User: Fold this.
Amino acid sequence: MTEHHTFEPLIFSDSKVLILGSFPSIKSFKEGFYYAHPRNQFWPILAAIYKEPVQTKEDKIALCKKYNIALFDSASSLQREAKNSSDTNLKNITVNNFETLLAKYPNIQTILFTGKKAEQIFNTKYKHLQIKKVLLPSTSPAYASMKLEEKLAKYKEALSHVFQ
Assistant:
């Protein structure tokens, strides 16, 4: 069964960095928001970098707005081979239209990928785009080979370069 991305990008006219995941997790679909799995490290990493609370969806939106961060996913639709959120189960992928998105939001200077699958999906159609792209480690609870402190350092470095 084909699944379609059901929520809009979190993006603002002054967004400078676009952070791309691969596709919403099953938990994110249920919550209707990005990185909703309670063990996903995405929001704790951003909270640590910016020293801002991220307890509610509103807190998360406010943090992204304040720091010119946009969120979206590389895939617009796909099929999952199994009933879990692992990127290895994603098949028959349709890529979101990033030429249109980036034309609509010209302040975006950098794309950060939250894992190899997000980058791979994007690059199937948009590798040619002349915009800075940075691959970061996955914040998924399934990616446990890198410690939280190491991931935090990589995200902090990538985000600090965007806003220099």
About this structure: Residues 19 and 70 are 6 Å apart (CA to CA). Strands lie at 2-4, 17-21, 69-73, 75-80, 90-95, 110-114, 132-136. The two ends are 44 Å apart (CA to CA).
